[in-house]
Structure formats: structure tokens, C-alpha cells
Design brief:
The complex is a heterodimer. By secondary structure, chain A is an all-alpha fold. In chain A, a hairpin with a 3-residue loop joins β1 and β2. Chain B is mostly helical. Helices cover 70% and strands 7% of the residues of chain B. A two-stranded antiparallel sheet of chain B has the order 1-2. A two-stranded antiparallel ribbon of chain B has the order 3-6. In chain B, strands 4-5 form a two-stranded antiparallel sheet. In chain B, α2 runs antiparallel to α14, α7 runs antiparallel to α13 and α8 packs antiparallel against α11. The longest helix of chain B has 40 residues. Chain B is globular, with a radius of gyration of 24 Å. Chain B starts with 5 loop residues before the first helix and ends in an 8-residue tail after the last helix. The chains are: A mainly alpha, B mainly alpha. Chains A and B meet through α3, α4, α5 and α14 of A and α2, α3, α4 and α14 of B.
Chain lengths: 334, 457
């Protein structure tokens, strides 16, 4: 029995990416929401809701890039230089977001600086991730003309996906805070989430309509028969989740809004996977063309198969240790 | 459009970002081990000073860990963005190593860090101690995989190359490559030594100011004893590493020794100024035969000189020459200080001896300087190769515009300078304030009834 190693690794990579998007999505989302929350105590609670877990969340970002590298080194080395500026700006923004956690709580008169660093860093990092996503889906990173085009990643489509991701992460952050907070802050988050849900639905619609317009191949994939009927469950499920999310916010369920938002992300993500399949560099390099040697894929897969379940296990444990509402004295305090 | 060379800038940028990053894991490896040791002492003896030490150093650990994480994320993307062809060539080797590092080390540290810092009241003491140990273990495992990857770049093993792509033949040979163990232990010892001197410096500061006496005396005693043991050990490991470098990278040895002509019984150049264009050293102070003795363990061992090959194969001679001397010079100085301190401790005079306490305060960051100097020796000495004798650095840089790399390089320079200043500022501020408000709140009925109230001043 021979395993299609590139296919398995595409699954591992896909898993890693969606884990990052959800986990750091709500962490970055909280930063994006910062400017709208003025009360100092509320901001402290917001940060304390993720202080014990942000590190683990951000580690999935490294997992994503390293898994892409391990499994598809030719795609990695093709994509990263062509996405140079958004990547560099993203890591710089993440520097500010990361140090803000520790510096903010040690600051007195300079606290405003780290509030700005946390909010600004989160916003810019999110926008860059959206730009990278858009550039990836757009599929024009590798052109036939000679030489590398350095600024191809910047287009109307990728700017749109940048803004879309900001709304999406903000919604993840708001619904996460609904779970972790109470009283006035939670009430505020319910209101914010309702507005953000409308924005996110709008952007899902725009992406769904715009993506097929970019490339004929995408149109064919989604709208030709019998594909249309096989793929129909995806947009239908998304619609159902939107209704569910709206209902759960109306009825003030605590956990359901976050679950629905995660599902929205999952279905949108699956849609993008359907669009990109089987390319790891659309439309140039397939997963089989970009893959590492069989010996390397097998060696790494053994380690991954052993360690990934273990780390998921103790990560879940870490989350359960910090379950429950965030109190004012939890997390950082001096 | 500025006409700046993206190859040169990419290399400068990587040098800057990796040098910045290495400071923080270096500190964290030592701190993690020390904190685990202190928590073990606390669990064993229940003396409150040990718990205070734990909580005090954990704050510094957290501050440092954050810096390490953000600068590490930079590296994981930069290496692909700026050195795409390099990553492409050795993907089959480097990918699985980095993959294992992320899975076995990064997630371990990050996963249990939250419990270590914030979980005191949420888990049992035993579970908390486990978390602390796992964080420390995570930092060491991380060092292992990185040293394996970096050592493979120095002495590639267990592979064959075809059409510029490396394929692994033996994972055992590739991972446990010839230089791994000396370099791994050298790095771990460097981390432990750098940390204990910061410990000793801060402890001495408190003794001079006559504050937090018990904590200061405990930390100082542990520090000088550990330093007095580890520094001679580091000397031995360094010697073993030197023999390995001589065997596998003779041109690096030549640059270290400032040796231009191949010769037997080569002299040790204690000080000099290497002149690359003239291929000689100015203002040399030499000791006969010692370079051969140190590098080959024979008085008349033959050392290869730089002139035995063409200039395009030479490492960055000045960086290697001076980097090595700075590292060893600081190491010897710190060793003497450690021995003196240990002797004073044995005589019961350490805590009152102001001169050594001032010396320890002033020398506390020096071991970090030595660590950086050692890395400069190692990596600049590996040039012009990115994988020794296999792939040249200049050919492995991504096709980027000079403008792009200039922007990113400037960004990193400004941002790193800024946050490093803030890091030091908050660190000093925290140390000056001292270990207050860290003790456990009293287990009074009032507190237990209302655990959300602020801790008493």
C-alpha cells in the first residue's frame, strides 16, 4: 500500500493553517477591537483573556510556515520572495503585538504606547495576512514574463481580502470575548458582533462572486455541471451558519456565536481550498510538483504523526486550565 | 530607485535579525533551568525565599520569552523570503529538522508557559512544577534541533546532491552530524553561564544596596558555584570543538589563528590586526608553537594557512579573528571571577566583599557579548559558504529588489533598537523595584472569602 505523501501533507498543512487562523484570529481580533473599547479595566480584561494562550496560538503561525517548507519546499521558496513586503510588514507588526503583552503591564505613563502597539500591530498583521491570502488566491504571483515581479501581490482583490480578514478576525475576537467576559463588556461585545456579522457576510459574498471572475478555471470548477451540485452544500451550509450566528447573537447564547463564526471561517476556507486545488502555487505548481523527496516526507510524517496528537492534547489541557470568565485580577498584574 | 545590492543587504539583515534573536533564547535556556531548580528547592524545603526567587525570575523569563518569540517569527519567514534558493536546495534536510523543532519544542514551551506564569492558583503544586520543567526542557530541545540544523550547514553529512537539490541518504548521519555534540553542549553551557552572571550581577546589586538580603545571598551563592563549575567545563568543550573545527574546517582555524602561511608548530597570535589585502598581521604579539598545540594537541601539528587557497574561499578574517579573541578573553576573565567568588564563598566572606560585588554587577552582561562573538566566529568563519564546501552564500539569495530589502532592513534596525531599549528599560525598572508584591497573599479567611481583591501591599 503506498500512501500519497504529498496529499497527506496537504492535509496536515491545511489543518495547521485553519488552526492558526482560528486561534490567532481571535487573538488578533481582540487587538483590532481595542480602539473601540475605552475603559482601562475592560482593556485589561480583554488582554487577560488571551494572555496565557497567545503564545501557543502564535506558534501555529510558525507551524504553518515550517510545514509548508517541510512538505512543499519548492512552493515555499517560490512564494515567499514574491510576497516579500507583506510578509516583512506582517512580522514587524507581530513584533509590536507580541511585546505589547509584557510591556503594557509594566508601563505606567507609557501605557498608551503599548495600547497603540497592540491595536496597531494586530490590525496591520491581519491586513497583511489578508493581502497574502488574496495574492495567493489570485494566482498571478508567478508570471511567464522574465524576472520576478516584486509588487504583484498588491491588487484590488488582495486589498479587499485584507479588509475582509480584518472584519473576520474582529468577529472571532468579539465572539471569543462573549464567552470569556460578563456584564457590561460582554454586552458591548454582543452589539459589536452583530455589526461585524453583517460586514463578514458582505465580504464572504464579495469574495465568492469576485474569485470566479478572476480566472475562467475557477468559474468552470464551481459552475459547470455536475460540479455545481456537488459543491452546492458548501454555500448552503454557510448560509445556514449565518442564520444560526444571527439567531445566537439575538438570543444571547454565550458559546454558539463563537462556534458559528469558526464554522463560517471553516466553510470559507474550504471554499478557497476547492478553488485552489490541486495547486500550492496557483496556477503554477501542484502539490506533487512542489513536494519534498519521499524520504524526507516519510521521516517528517512519522514525527508529526507521533507529536501532533500529543501537542493538541496538552494544548487543550492548557485551555481547560484557564477556562471560565476572566476576572480583573487574572493574568498580568502589578 | 536606490541602487543598493540586495545580496549584501539580505546578508546584513539576516546577521542583524539572528544576532538579536539569539540573545533571548540564550537567556531563557539558563533561566528556565534555574527557575526549575528553585521551584524544586521550594517544593523540597518550603522556604519562602525559594518561591520568591521563582516568581521574581519568572517575570523576567516572560519578558525575555516574548522578545524571543517575536524575533523568532521574523527569522522563520525571513530565511525563506531572503534566501529562497538556499531553502529550496536543502529543503529535504532542513524542513524535517525545523518541523521536529516546532512540534517537539516550540509547542511544548508555548503550551506550558501560560500555566507556569499564570497557573499558580489553578493547578496543583506538582502540576505547576511539571509545567516549569517542561518549559525548560522545551528550550533545551529547541536548542538541540537548531544546533543540528546549523551544524549540518557547517559539516553536511548523510546526503547526496543532484541538480542543486540535496537528498538525505541517512537521517542518523544528517541529524547527528560530526559537529553537533560539541556545538550543542558549547551553546547550552554558554546559556547557563550567561544567565548565572546576570543572576550574580542582580544579586550583588541588592547586596550593595542592602535590600532583599536572603534572596540576594541565595542567588549569589548558587551563581558563583555554578559558574565556577561550568566555566572550566566550557573551556574543555571549547577545546573539543576547536579540534573538530581544525579537522573539518581548516580555513576557519586559519582565520581564528590569523595564520596566512601553512606551517607546523604555528605560533599563537595573542593580539594583532589582520590585513587581508596584504595577507599579514600588523602589531603581532605571538607565543611560539601554541596555536598548533591548542588546535592539534601536538607541538608540531600542521595548520593550514589562508594562502593555501584562493581569496574567494576565505572567510571574513577580521570578524573571525577578533570575534574569537573577544569570546575567549571574556570567558577567561569570567572564569577568574567565578573562582575568586567561589573561594570567597568558601571562606564565608563573599556576602560582605564589596569589590567582587561591584565587579559582578559590571561584568553581568559580558557573557552575552561572548556568546555573540562566538556566533560571529562560527558563522563568519563558515563563509563564503552557506553550506560548507557545497553552496556559496552569494548564490543562494532570493531575487529581490534592492529597494525592498533596504526598506525591510531599515524597519528591522529601527524596530529592534526601539524594543531592545524598552526591554532593558522595563528590565532595569523591574529589578530596581525588586521582588515585592510577589509573595503569596496570606491565607486569611477574608482573602479566601473574596479572592478577587487586590493583594495587600
Amino acid at each position: 500500500m503506498s500512501i500519497d505523501l504529498p496529499l497527506v501533507w496537504a492535509g496536515v498543512l491545511g489543518f495547521g493553517i485553519i488552526m492558526y487562523v482560528i486561534l490567532d484570529g481571535f487573538s488578533l481580533g481582540i487587538g483590532i477591537l481595542f480602539p473601540w473599547i475605552i475603559e482601562k479595566a475592560h482593556r485589561d480584561i480583554m488582554m487577560n483573556s488571551i494572555a496565557p494562550i497567545w503564545d501557543g496560538n502564535e506558534t501555529w503561525l510558525v507551524f504553518g510556515s515550517v510545514t509548508l517548507y517541510t512538505a512543499f519546499p519548492h512552493a515555499y521558496s517560490m512564494l515567499l520572495p514574491r510576497l516579500y513586503m507583506p510578509i516583512m510588514i506582517m512580522v514587524c507588526a507581530l513584533i509590536f503585538r507580541g511585546v505589547a503583552f509584557e510591556f503594557r503591564f509594566k508601563a505606567n505613563t507609557s501605557k498608551w504606547l503599548w495600547d497603540a502597539a497592540f491595536a496597531g500591530g494586530s490590525l496591520i498583521a491581519t491586513c497583511c495576512q489578508g493581502l497574502i491570502l488574496g495574492a495567493f488566491v489570485h494566482g498571478n504571483l508567478v508570471s511567464d514574463t522574465s524576472g520576478v515581479q516584486h509588487y504583484v501581490w498588491f491588487s484590488g482583490f488582495s486589498v479587499m481580502t485584507g479588509i475582509a480578514l480584518i472584519a473576520g478576525y474582529a468577529l472571532l475576537g468579539a465572539t471569543w470575548l462573549i464567552i470569556k467576559t460578563e456584564d457590561s463588556l460582554q454586552k458591548e461585545m454582543f452589539n459589536v458582533a452583530k455589526i461585524l456579522l453583517i460586514l463578514v457576510v458582505f465580504f464572504i459574498g464579495v469574495v465568492s462572486l469576485w474569485t470566479p471572475l478572476i480566472d475562467v478555471r475557477t468559474q468552470v470548477r464551481w459552475f459547470s455541471l455536475p460540479n455545481f451540485f456537488y459543491l452546492l452544500p458548501l454555500p448552503l451550509s454557510t448560509l445556514a451558519v449565518v442564520v444560526g450566528a444571527s439567531y445566537s447573537l439575538q438570543k444571547r447564547y454565550e458559546i454558539l456565536p463563537f462556534v458559528c463564526t469558526v464554522l463560517l471561517f471553516l466553510f470559507s476556507y474550504l471554499g478557497l481550498c476547492v478553488t485552489s486545488w490541486p495547486y500550492i502555487v496557483p496556477h503554477t505548481l501542484s502539490i506533487w510538483q512542489a513536494a519534498a523527496s519521499t524520504k524526507s516526507l516519510s521521516f517528517a510524517l512519522i514525527g508529526t504523526a507521533l507529536l501532533l496528537p500529543v501537542l493538541i492534547g496538552y494544548s487543550i489541557y492548557a485551555y481547560t486550565v484557564f477556562r471560565g470568565k476572566v476576572k480583573a485580577d487574572h493574568g498580568y498584574h502589578h | 530607485m536606490l541602487n543598493v545590492d540586495p545580496v549584501f543587504l539580505s546578508r546584513m539583515q539576516f546577521g542583524l535579525t539572528v544576532a538579536f534573536h539569539i540573545l533571548f533564547p540564550t537567556f531563557n535556556i539558563g533561566l528556565g533551568c534555574f527557575i526549575a531548580l528553585m521551584e524544586a528547592c521550594w517544593l523540597r524545603t518550603q522556604k519562602p525565599v525559594y518561591l520568591t526567587i521563582c516568581k521574581f525570575w519568572m517575570r523576567i523569563f516572560a519578558l525575555t520569552f516574548g522578545m524571543g518569540v517575536v524575533s523568532g517569527i521574523v527569522l522563520s519567514y525571513e530565511i525563506g523570503a531572503n534566501f529562497g534558493p538556499f531553502m529550496d536546495s536543502i529543503g529535504n534536510v532542513l524542513g524535517p529538522l525545523l518541523n521536529l523543532e516546532v512540534l517537539s519544542a516550540f509547542f511544548l514551551e508555548a503550551g506550558f508557559l501560560g500555566i507556569m506564569l499564570f497557573g499558580w492558583k489553578r493547578v496543583s503544586p506538582r502540576m505547576h512544577f511539571t509545567a516549569t520543567c517542561l518549559v525548560a526542557v522545551g528550550t533545551v530541545i529547541s536548542a538541540f534541533w537548531i544546533m543540528s540544523a546549523n551544524s549540518w550547514m557547517q559539516v553536511p553529512a548523510g546526503f547526496h546532491i543532484q541538480d542543486n537539490i540535496v537528498y538525505v541518504d541517512s537521517w542518523v548521519q544528517a541529524v547527528l552530524n560530526p559537529m553537533l555534540f560539541p556545538r550543542f553542549f558549547h551553546m547550552i553551557l554558554a546559556s547557563l553561564i550567561a544567565t548565572v552572571f546576570v543572576l550574580a550581577g542582580i544579586a550583588s546589586f541588592y547586596l550593595i544596596k542592602q535590600r532583599h538580603g536572603e534572596l540576594a545571598r541565595t542567588c549569589l551563592a548558587f551563581s558563583v558555584v555554578i559558574a565556577a563549575i561550568l566555566l572550566p567545563a566550557q573551556l574543555i568543550v571549547g577545546d573539543v570543538l576547536g579540534l573538530s573545527v581544525y579537522h573539518h574546517q581548516p580555513l576557519k582555524t586559519a582565520a581564528i589563528e590569523g595564520l596566512w602561511e601553512t606551517q607546523k608548530g604555528a605560533p599563537l597570535v595573542l593580539f594583532g590586526v589582520p590585513d587581508v589585502s596584504a595577507a599579514k598581521n600588523h602589531w603581532e604579539i605571538k607565543l611560539p608553537k601554541l596555536a598548533s598545540l591548542i588546535n592539534t594537541h601536538q607541538w608540531d601539528g600542521e595548520l593550514q594557512g589562508l594562502m593555501s587557497t584562493t581569496r574567494d574561499n576565505w572567510p571574513v578574517v577580521a570578524a573571525v579573528f577578533f570575534g574569537f579573541r573577544i569570546m575567549v578573553g571574556i570567558g577567561l576573565l569570567l572564569m577568574l571571577l567565578a573562582f575568586y567568588g567561589a573561594w570567597l564563598l568558601w571562606r564565608g566572606r563573599l556576602y560582605a566583599h564589596r569589590p567582587i560585588q561591584y565587579a559582578l554587577v559590571w561584568t553581568s552582561p559580558l557573557a552575552f557579548v561572548a556568546t555573540l562573538a562566538g556566533w560571529v566566529t562560527s558563522e563568519s568563519g563558515r563563509q563564503p559558504w552557506v553550506v560548507y564546501n557545497l553552496l556559496r552564500t552569494n548564490e543562494m539569495v532570493s531575487d529581490l529588489s534592492g529597494q525592498q530589502v533596504l526598506i525591510s532592513f531599515s524597519l528591522f534596525l529601527c524596530i529592534y533598537l526601539t524594543i531592545f531599549c524598552f526591554y532593558l528599560y522595563y528590565l532595569v525598572k523591574f529589578v530596581r523595584r525588586g521582588p515585592v508584591h510577589l509573595e503569596e497573599p496570606p491565607m486569611t479567611v477574608a482573602y479566601l472569602a473574596n479572592p478577587n481583591q487586590k493583594e495587600p501591599v
